[in-house]
Amino acid sequence: xxILFVATEAVPFAKVGGMAxxxxxxxxxxxxxxxxxxxxxxxxxxxxxxAYNVSLLFSFDMALQEGLxxxxxxxxxxxxVPFYFVQVWxxxxxDHNVYTEWSWDSPRFILFNQVVIGTAWELGKRLGxxxxxxxxxxxxxxxxxxxxxxSKHIDxxxxxxxxxxxxxxxxxxxxxxxxxxxAGIPERDQPDLVYQNLTDNMLAISITYSDIVTTVSPxxxxxxxxxxxxxxxxxxxRTRSDDLYGILNGIDADLWDPATDPKLTVNYDVLTFDSxxxxxxxxxxxxxxxxxxxSAMMIGLVSRLVWQKGIDLALPALxxxxxxxxxxFVALGTxxxxxxxxxxxxxxxxxxxxxxxxxxxxxxxxxxxxxSDLFLMPSHFEPCGTSQMLAMRYGALxxxxxxxxxxxxxxxxxxxxxxxxxxxxxxxxxxxxxxxxWAFHTFRDRPQAWLRMQERAMKIDFSWxxxxxxxxxxxxxxxxxxRVDK
Length: 486
Prior knowledge:
Structural class: alpha/beta
Distance between the termini: 19 Å
Number of helices: 19
CATH class of the largest domain: Alpha Beta
CATH topology of the largest domain: Rossmann fold
Largest sheet: 9 strands, mixed
Number of strands: 15
Oligomer: single chain
Shape: elongated
Mean pLDDT: 95
Helix content: 40-55%
CATH superfamily of the largest domain: Glycogen Phosphorylase B
Strand content: 15-25%
């Protein structure tokens, strides 16, 4: 089975959010199961061709509404997975940002969708490799299922199926009807789209025309069918409920392994963490300039500083906790000014026990995973999330809100011998504070229960192997559906 992942970001070439981690690791897991998975993405100017041995594969001309496009397809093989990068003037090739502004991203990603179709055709003719399933991701690739549907009178395209993964429903590529018209995209006449006035919404188009729709966790698949979490698309999504599935994201267990991670001060595993992991906490305290004390509960936060992540809920709760309890806190991340300002002020007011690193550094993040006792992730919503999985992999117990993938991956402590972290439900600062206080008393008063939770957390298998098998089942389902429709 041939699977072509179509996405705008993938580790290690270009990363903004969690989609990059999925597209950078799931194809490799599929190839281990004898699926010929490959990736097609924009050839951004920021991609280092020499570092990744990227070279020109072929070029071709493609007729578009506004003229003939000169398309250049570059390729490399990374970690056993073939990657293809498309460059086409003026949008892809000299750019140094994955995403820019709405007025630029809208036409350039429309063009990317058109070029995907042309590139897939050329791969078939030149290399003898044509996708059985196009696995598209989020709104940026939302036209691909529609363009496939419009080409189904051609034999090759009549057999091709499509699967959409929704990583974050909040971003939709909406109100771009003028650009669709200028690009010569045919009318989207599916009744549900027309009835709900969504024919100029890229994500809505993809939801409607994909054979299968997936989200990145089972709970998120349920949440987006409700008005509260549907961002205006819940009605449309409910029309696809029979074809909607939630598959939990995984992590690269070989890459994220405290037993072999070269960035850690001391390596450890589930058999040795109780004696060795503490050295990483001491190192983190030293490099941050905090008092080195094992008894102080270290709280870590690694996050994009945006509303979704619940930092607005955490700030007042942390202020109360730092004022009255023996805890230390470190935050790493960048984002919205008000949230950066709030974390900066917190570090000023509690300078002897708090550090706010308003930047992103992957090595520092790993030290926080390995050195924190508690990992804070109080998201308003979280389609899947990987930080809580990484924290558990490294032995930091997550404190999360019961939403999306957080609810699917963290088992709430029951004050007994169950659980891998701490969970709250209400989107309130008081709920965060109460749960932080509960975690503090557990850490201080029940150290053996804490160790047992860490052991359970570290033993959970968050690798891609189980999810990859679930995706294979859905690819087969999409192909069967396509053949029946034909």
